[in-house]
Amino acid sequence: MSLLIKGGVIVTASDIYQGDVFVDGERISAIGIDLDMPADRVIDAAGKYLFPGGIDVHTHLDMPFGGTKSADDFESGTIAAAHGGTTTIVDFAIQYKGQTLHHAWETWMQKADGKAAIDYGFHMIITDLSDQVEQEMDALVRQGVTSFKLFMAYPGVFMLDDASILRALLRTGKNGGTICMHAENGGVIDVLVQKALAQGKTAPKYHALTRPARAEAEATHRAIALAEIADVPVYIVHLSAAEALEMVTEARDRGLPAFAETCPQYLFLSYDNYEEPGFEGAKYVMSPPLRARETQEQLWRGLAFNDLQVISTDHCPFCMKEQKELGSSDFSKIPNGAPGIETRMSLVYDGGVRTGRISLNRFVELTSASPARIFGLFPKKGTIAPGSDADIVIFDPEKRVTLSVKTLHMQVDYNPYEGREVTGATDTVISRGRVIVDAGKFTGRAGGGAFLRRSTR
Ligand code: URP
Ligand code: ZN
Ligand code: ZN
Question: What is the mean pLDDT of residues 446-457?
């Protein structure tokens, strides 16, 4: 199968130019002006942008959490991702206490197998670090699972102590892997949660009020300090607080390899959402929580000046009915997470590029090139270049869309951006040479995505 995409404006992290792209099989084979090559299909992209497929390095599909599991599996989640212009995800496999990493990896490979409609890789969440698990980290890196998520929050479930965190960091110094850190001080948060509940404070907003920005900043500082001691890079996931961003900025100014991502929810939503009437605030219960509205501009500045390198989604959807409802009389029982895999590209384009907060090149860098570089996928993914995978989003910068649970494809009964109008949306999406979204209609197939063995730093 060959494709000739004509007349679009090609945007990478470094270039913007008009040109034609020829796709032969799964890869881009030529880029030029007025290419005249026979192709099985010619796509007219005049007036549209061609972006490298979006890469979302933080998703939780089919993930058990708080007595339930995330509402999208690898089929529905990746189809929704494709609609939104994302062609690669890196999801999280979880090692539960007493289990091997290998068991966790096999479990998550089975969840994705035959279901994922786009390409996927895995980070490994380590909750129990023994000598044997350290050896397994090396084996996983060799198998292409080159990053590990550690939690400084959720004591008794996911949280690792500082000694284990340091050991894991030191190990990645030898095996070339990357540690991704959930940076919130879990012990402190637990005390605040118990205190609030004892005072009868059970509403969703207390989720945010018991997870202060300083608890995120303290853990971010500690994560970076431990990585500095181990002399390895560290990547802070889902950074939400200005105080935490200050810690990353300070470290980067000292020349340390500290990296961080934020997510659209922290750029477009705020603490005010927890004050919505009744139990509505549960829609936004996620960790870290939404912050004060002023934080949004500080995060945008961090994105523009490269103190933040990636925008991922932390897509972890739970329906209001029967799932978020588990915490209707106790906020600490509300499953943590919100949907976002489908809305990232449009939200960031509309709220970032159209407002002038970030350039078009920076948009591509944050949503595709930089996650590809940090997580060992570049230049196979993350750019439009001869030899790269033909993962291409044909994006209509003038298309107006109203975000709504009625039209989006995520399998969840609400949308945090309900009714928000955005300008700029995906038209056609190509994944390794296959048209998987054609003028807004899904034409791919469950199981069409492949597991990605990622490389090391
Ligand atoms: O609330 C969140 N973020 N849920 C997903 C799990 C995590 O910590 O990323
Ligand atoms: Zn997390
Ligand atoms: Zn997450």
Answer: 97
Q: How many CA within 13 A on the CB side of residue 309?
A: 19
* Tokens coding 114: 């035959």
| Plot region of 369 (φ>0 → left; ψ -120 to 50 → alpha; else → beta) | alpha
Six-digit token string for 141? 């890196």
Give me the pLDDT at residue 67, please. Answer: 92
Name the percent of the chain lying above pLDDT 70.
100
From residue 2, alpha-carbon distances to 20, 108, 229, 270, 431 in Å are 13, 33, 51, 45, 13
What's the one-letter identity of residue 155?
Answer: P
Residue 21 CA, ligand 1 centroid: distance in Å: 38
The reply to whether the predicted model has a pTM over 0.85 is: yes
Q: Is the C-beta atom of 324 inside 6 A of ligand 1?
A: no
- C-alpha 142 to ligand 2 mean position (Å): 25
Q: What confidence score (pLDDT) does residue 72 get?
A: 98
Q: Name, in order, each residue with C-beta under 8 angstroms of 318's C-beta and a sequence gap of 6 or more.
A: 65, 68, 70, 71, 324, 335, 337, 338, 412
CA of residue 124 to ligand 1 center, whole Å: 14
Average pLDDT over residues 222-249: 98
Report the alpha-carbon distance of residue 415 to residue 339 in Å, rounded. 7
Q: Counting ligands in written order, which one lies closest to the CA of residue 64?
A: 1
Question: Alpha-carbon distance 341 to 360, whole Å?
Answer: 20
Terminal alpha carbon distance of the chain: 34
Say if CB 249 and CB 302 are below 8 A apart: yes
For residue 259, what is the DSSP state? E
User: For ligand 1, atom 5, which residue shows the shortest CA distance?
Assistant: 337
Q: Which among 311, 456, 255 has a CA at the least distance from the CA of 374? A: 456
Ligand 1 atom with the smallest distance to the CA of 237 is 9
Question: How many Cα atoms within 13 Å fall on the side-chain side of residue 111?
Answer: 26
The pLDDT of residue 457: 86
DSSP string, 335-399: PP-B--TTTHHHHHIIIIITTTSS-HHHHHIIIIIHHHHHTT-TTTSSS--TTSB--EEEEEEEE
What's the rounded Cα separation, in Å, for the pair 210 and 192?
Answer: 5
CB-ligand 1 contact for 181 (6 Å cutoff): no
Q: How many residues in the chain?
A: 457
Q: Rounded to an integer, what distance in angstroms lies between the CA atom of residue 417 and that of residue 283?
A: 10
| Rounded CA separation 50/87 (Å) | 13
Q: Would you say the CB of residue 314 lies under 6 angstroms from ligand 1?
A: yes
